[in-house]
Amino acid sequence: MAEILDGARIAAEIRAEVAARTAERTAAGHRPPGLAVILAGDDPASHVYVGSKVKASAEAGFVSRQITLPSTATAEEVAAAIDSLNQDPAIDGFLVQLPLPEGLPSRELLASVDPDKDVDGFHAENVGRLWLGEETLAPATPSGIIEMLRRSGVPMRGAEAVVVGRSNIVGKPMAALLLAENATVTVCHSRTRDLAEVCRRADILVAAMGRPGTIGPEHVKPGATVVDVGTNRVEDPALVEHLFPGDEKRRAALEKRGYTLVGDVDFTRVAPIAGKITPVPGGVGPLTVAMLLANTLKAAIRRAGA
Fold first, then answer.
1. What's the rounded Cα separation, in Å, for the pair 94 and 85?
2. d(Cα 91, Cα 70) in Å, to the nearest integer?
3. Looking at 92, 97, 203, 264, which residue is catalytic?
4. Which of 203, 209, 124, 128 shows the shortest CA–CA distance to 170?
5. Is residue 204 within 8 Å of residue 159, measured between CB atoms?
């Protein structure tokens, strides 16, 4: 069986390092970093995500702030909230939790975030800096994956890396960060011919397409490192049984909550082939919040000039 890459443990390490560095800076007379979140609407998952971010921020010793707007919020109201945080000297980084309520111009609103406070790394200026190889605030999930690979001793220099998925949030920045580590990178998508053949070349395979259990044993080279970014809510008992045959814990979770979280990788069948693999949950997910905190600390240091 493959070695399990424990994203939760690595995320805890990163959060502890951020908290320690924050305490050092505060003791030296610097103000604590400030992280804020704008939450508009009633999406249940968004409320859970924002709650975890606010809690982690406080635990790291940050100033934490949340601006909550109703699902009826107008573009002007969201823009005003963004402008207030752009101007707030106590806030070093903030994010606009997606998705925004239907009808709001997400792209235009995100473009109005100060790039130096864009700890999500979504602003076009930060995207450009990333691809130019310049110092920047990179998206948290792919940044967390790079940290996990580095801390787990996975060689990236010269490695053949395949990223399945070309989203602006994960796939594209993942490719840029792997290139920066001197990997040879291929990005696959829904129009890729013979996906399995391309994936089998990978020393590092990153699955980020948002389709449960799509990556099977036919996609994986023996000994490869497989990183599963997918977090899919699956409610179909037959699919759960197919992906996790005889797994009583999964079955119990499905009966209790009505769903279970499933990655993009068929873990049961891929784990015996891979050299290293991330589970879902407990793999990539915890790293996202950890790297959001790391980005906020970086932004605070840059804004303070030391």
1. 7
2. 22
3. 97
4. 209
5. yes
95, 101, 104, 108 alpha-carbon torsion, rounded to 10°: 20
Our answer to whether residue 92 is catalytic in this structure is no
What percent helix, strand, coil does the chain show, rounded to 5? 45, 15, 40
Q: What is the pLDDT along the chain (306 residues), one digit of tens a residue?
A: 899 999 999 999 999 999 999 999 999 999 999 999 999 988 888 888 898 898 999 999 999 999 999 999 999 999 999 999 999 999 999 999 999 999 999 999 999 999 999 999 999 999 999 999 999 999 999 999 999 999 999 999 999 999 999 999 999 999 999 999 999 999 999 999 999 999 999 999 999 999 999 999 999 999 999 999 999 999 999 999 999 999 999 999 899 999 999 999 999 999 999 999 999 999 999 999 999 999 999 999 999 987
DSSP structure class, residue 217: G
Q: Which residues contact 74 (CB under 8 A, 6 or more apart)?
A: 104
Q: Known catalytic residue: 53?
A: yes
Catalytic residue among 53, 221, 276, 298: 53
Catalytic residue among 92, 118, 120, 264: 120
Q: Are 243 and 266 in contact (CB under 8 A)?
A: yes
- Reported as type and span, the H/E element at residue 93 is strand 93-96
120 catalytic per annotation: yes
List the beta bridge partners of residue 94: 36, 118
